[in-house]
Design a protein that fits this description.
Blueprint (H helix, E strand, L loop, with lengths): L1 E5 L2 E5 L4 H14 L3 E3 L23 H4 L9 E9 L16 E10 L4 H13 L11 E5 L4 H10 L7 E3 L4 E2 L4 E12 L23 E14 L5 E14 H8 L12 H10 L9 H22 L8 H19 L11 H7 L5 H5 L1 H35 L4 E2 L1 H11 L3 H10 L3 E2 L1 H18 L11 H5 L5 E2 L6 E11 L2 E3 L1 E2 L2 E7 L1 E2 L13 E4 L5 E10 L5 E7 L3 E2 L3 E6 L1 H25 L5 E6 L4 E6 L6 H16 L4 E7 H6 L13 E7 L3 E4 L14 E10 L2 E8 H21 L8 H34 L4 E3 L2 E7 L5 H14 L4 E7 L5 E7 L1 H5 L4 H8 L6 E4 L3 E6 L5 H15 L1
Parallel strand pairs: 3-4, 6-7, 12-13, 14-19, 33-34
Antiparallel strand pairs: 1-2, 4-5, 5-11, 6-9, 8-9, 9-10, 10-11, 15-16, 15-18, 15-24, 17-23, 18-22, 20-21, 20-24, 21-22, 25-26, 26-31, 27-28, 28-29, 30-31, 32-33, 34-35, 35-37, 36-37
Enzyme class: ligase
Pfam family, one: tRNA-synt_2c
Family: Belongs to the class-II aminoacyl-tRNA synthetase family.
Length: 894
């Protein structure tokens, strides 16, 4: 325990580690009937509005807007989150982080203000739990929320002088659920007071260091409608958030979040890499230690969840964080790669709740090391550019570097603005901060524009949420059953009968699979008991309460509570289940060949093909694709039974079943087991034996995002047809090449390639001879202008390569001071080359300036060195004008 003194009384605070605090929070709410939800991946699933999961509530959207009804309306979690909107503040403030954990308890249409408030107070103050001093706790409420204020005082027992009304206490992110909130503050004492006693911000809720906000409880009770008005929610929700890093700093009596067990091991390890810098020696070095500790946490978790450094999206964020950390490492005197060695330190700190980090530590460290090495090369280029810009500015008698230059260093080379300022300051120069800020603003606007404009959370609709009809899926065994029509929905209204058009139907039982886990929905027909087709099923999705909801085209009237025959299209269903089983085999084969770090990032199982997305650093080689394909086919040819086991989640995990973070699993799960080779949790449809797949063929492999690759493949009939088309193509080629046997094609191609190479050499020799003949004539046509000599001409050569050869010959023989040659290519383009002798360059006649002057005449542009430059154009008719412009340029410059 650590001890605080207040008014002569010794107060004892529980001494808890971050893991104990996290676990205590979750256990408390578990005792209150909440299900503990595992932390979701940082990479959002089916949410185009988010780059990262940035809060606990981000994983609850589908529950709060009513699109899904949870098994238990009471949920608690410790959710890892990333926010990078104010990355520049990290290290400079006490509590800014890129990665943080948000402890939360949530009620979806269940308990509301009374329970949320009293439970929060119990957790914080009960001796059994956090045992905080009640006198140090303050709460704020929305002024119009008199009910919350009354509950805090009358039910929880908080004194009136510890309750503050704050106008900003209303949570609203636009369209969707919103409502008043109540924040809880911890008084850290006079030692942390950074304001005069009479300062208007010196109160719980104000901008100060003494009163630390540790918890926010949102009473989500209104729908913010698209027209800007508010209406009561059909189902009120509770959404809370307690920052783990903040509350740990309270228990561990830390001045900032960084002096806790979540960060200190990283800081201490970084000290070992620094020659002479220690944490606490100076404010400047402390910032660097904090930035490194913060950024490596975010990078480690992000890469562990499947993100890879790149130049866009999430990958750009990771690259930027790594580069900022490396730069701060250099400020501490660390010249070698070191970040990757911090990855296992992060894993050990977080092991109790996130064991997967240590399990993937080798892979994560490999990615980080690769990026560190890459940046060290980029860093040299950035420093060279910075030095060039400083020299150029000094030539122009400027003492300020442009904001555009500073931003280029920041955006392209990863230079933090403060680093550029330091370099400039060493040279007696400053930075155009306003210009830099403007460039940064434009970048953020571009990023916002590029992001999906999809709504962040839907307006809650009570209709589908309120449908509690019992409905079972029986399609694992039967594709044709009789079912009673229980609900008919037309244009968001429940009706008793539908005559025509489109409708959504729910039956008491159905053989139609609802789209899930990448497998597309079944299609088929609905008939009356006399055999007449009354509707065609075009899609099947899960309703909020889990029922299979059929979207149908109505052909004849359908009536509620009537019995109908539901029949799945068996041919399409069978093809789909073959491809689904193939994805399981492919998933494991990828891990066998590429490594255990590879994991699924998405899939689509259609009747005619399958698509499988997976994480991997680079493209998959042809050799590895062949190995993967071979493994899958060997499992098909081995005639392996495909078994499905229904068991509880924990037992499934003991079997070694792979679970995907994107899926939610109930108490009873289905395990699809293909021998001991592939064991996965899956609710989809599968074959009974791998031999039913017949054949597996990969049709393409490509990249679809930073660190995400995609394989498309076919099985059975489609695989045969794919190979047959390839065979027909080879047959056609053999006929054109007049080859009897297909096996002779490679040998014949080698012969053709040798002949082509020989012909190309002969052609090149003739072109060189022709160019030389032209050179003998061209180099004699010397024009003298103001004491300088110019050779200019249009020549007939194959392209830029031969123009450069002529320029080299000109340079060796020193035919003139300046040379300009042009040629029109066979594809209707123009190549220009300009050269200047050493004496001409010394006299200020630069080839680069010349080429920029004459290139517009041929509709092009270019550049180069002072002694040699080249350009391309698209207007051959302008060559004469370009050559004339060369004479005029020399007339002006000589």
């Amino acid at each position: 325990m650590f001890i605080k003194k207040r008014k002569g009384v010794i107060l004892r605070m529980k001494e808890l580690s971050s893991s104990q605090i996290r676990q205590m929070y979750l256990e408390f709410f578990k005792e209150k009937g909440h299900d503990i939800m595992p932390s979701a991946s940082l990479i959002p699933h089916d949410d185009p509005t988010l780059l990262w999961i940035n809060s606990g509530v981000a994983t609850m959207k589908k529950f709060f807007d009513g699109s899904v009804v949870p098994k238990n309306p009471r949920i608690t979690s410790s959710q890892k989150s990333i926010r990078t909107n104010d990355i520049e503040n990290v290290g400079h403030t006490a509590r800014h982080h890129t990665l943080f954990e948000m402890l939360g308890n949530f009620s979806v249409g269940d308990y509301f203000k009374k329970e949320a408030i009293t439970w929060a107070w119990e957790l914080l103050t009960s001796p059994k739990w956090f045992a905080m001093d009640k006198e140090r706790l303050y709460v704020t409420v929305y002024p119009k929320d008199t009910e919350a204020k009354r509950i805090w005082h009358e039910v929880a027992g908080v004194s009136q002088d510890h309750i503050y009304e704050v106008e900003d206490n209303f949570w609203d992110i636009g369209q969707g659920p919103s409502g008043p909130d109540s924040e809880i503050f911890y008084d850290r004492g006079q030692d942390f007071n950074d304001l005069p006693e009479d300062d208007p911000e010196n109160y719980p809720g104000g901008e100060n260091e003494r009163y630390l906000e540790i918890w926010n409880i949102v009473f989500s009770e209104f729908n913010h409608k698209p027209d800007g008005t508010y209406e009561p929610l059909p189902h009120k929700n509770i959404d809370t958030g307690m920052g783990l890093e903040r509350v740990v700093s309270v228990f561990q009596n830390a001045p900032t979040n960084f002096e806790t067990d979540l960060f200190l091991p990283l800081i201490k390890q970084t000290e070992k890499y620094s020659a002479d810098k220690k944490y606490g020696q100076s404010k400047e070095s402390d910032v660097s230690f904090k930035v490194i500790a913060d950024h490596i946490r975010a990078v480690t978790f992000a890469i562990g969840d499947g993100a890879i450094p790149s130049n866009e999206g999430r990958g750009y964020v990771i690259r930027r964080l790594i580069r900022r950390a490396v730069m701060h490492g250099q400020k501490l005197g660390i010249e070698h790669a070191f970040l990757y060695e911090l990855v296992p330190v992060v894993g050990k700190i977080m092991q109790s709740h996130y064991p997967e980090v240590l399990e993937q530590a080798d892979y994560i460290a490999k990615v980080v090391r690769s990026e560190e090495d890459r940046f060290n090369e980029t860093l040299k280029d950035g420093l060279e550019l910075l030095n060039e810009m400083i020299v150029e500015a000094k030539k122009q008698s400027s003492k300020e570097l442009s904001g555009k230059t500073a931003f280029k260093l920041y955006d392209t080379y990863g230079f933090p603005i403060e680093l550029t300022k330091e370099y400039a300051d060493d040279q007696g120069m400053s930075i155009d901060q306003a210009g830099f800020d403007q460039e940064m603003k434009q970048q953020k606007e571009r990023a916002r524009a590029a992001r999906s404009n999809a709504k962040s959370m839907g307006v809650q609709k009570g209709l589908l949420t309120d449908i509690k009809t019992k409905s079972s899926y029986v399609g694992y065994d039967r594709l044709k059953v009789e079912g009673t029509l229980k609900d008919i929905i037309v244009e968001d209204k429940l009706v008793e009968k539908v005559e025509n058009g489109s409708a959504q139907l729910i039956f008491d039982q159905t053989p139609f699979y609802a789209e899930m886990g990448g497998q597309v929905a079944d299609t088929g027909s609905i008939k009356d008991t006399e055999g007449k087709t009354v509707a065609v099923v075009t899609d099947v999705q899960h309703a909020p309460n889990g029922q299979n909801m059929h979207t149908v085209k109505v052909l004849h009237p359908l009536t509620k509570e009537k019995v109908y025959v539901l029949q799945v299209d068996k041919a399409l269903h069978d093809k789909t289940r073959k491809n689904h089983t193939a994805t399981h085999l492919l998933d494991q084969a990828l891990r066998d060949v590429l490594g255990s770090h590879t994991h699924q990032a998405g899939s689509l199982v259609e009747p005619n093909y399958l698509r499988f997305d997976f994480t991997n650093l680079g493209s998959v080689t042809r050799e590895d694709l062949l190995k993967i394909e071979r493994i899958v086919n060997e499992k098909i040819w081995a005639n392996i039974p495909v078994r499905t086991i229904e068991t509880d989640f924990d037992s499934a995990k003991k079997l070694g079943a792979i679970a995907l973070f994107t899926e939610k699993y109930g108490d009873i799960v289905r395990v699809v087991k293909i021998d001991n080779y592939s064991i996965e949790l899956c609710g989809g449809n599968h074959v009974d034996n791998t031999s039913e797949l017949g054949l597996f063929k990969i049709t393409s492999e490509s990249g679809v995002g930073a660190g995400v690759r995609r394989i498309e493949a076919v099985t059975s009939k489609e695989a045969y047809e794919f190979l047959e088309k390839r065979n027909q193509l080879l047959e056609s080629i053999s006929e054109q090449m007049k080859i009897v046997q297909l096996k002779e094609i490679p040998h014949k191609l080698e012969q053709y390639q040798a002949q082509i190479k020989d012909l190309e050499q002969q052609k090149q020799a003739l072109e060189d001879k022709f160019a030389q003949q032209q050179a003998d004539s061209v180099f004699k046509q010397v024009e003298e202008i103001k004491g300088k000599t110019l050779i200019k001409a249009q020549v007939k050569v194959s392209g830029m390569a031969q123009l450069r050869q002529l320029a080299d010959q000109w340079k060796t023989k020193k035919y003139s001071d300046v040379l300009v040659l042009a040629t029109a290519t066979k594809d209707g383009k123009v190549n220009l080359i300009a050269a200047a002798s050493a004496s001409a360059v010394k006299a200020g006649l630069k080839a680069g300036d010349l080429i920029k002057t004459i290139a517009p005449s041929v509709g092009g542009g270019g550049g180069g060195r002072p002694d040699l430059a080249q350009a391309g154009g698209k207007t051959p008719a302008g060559i004469a004008d370009a050559l004339k412009a060369a004479s005029e340029w020399l007339e002006q410059k000589a």
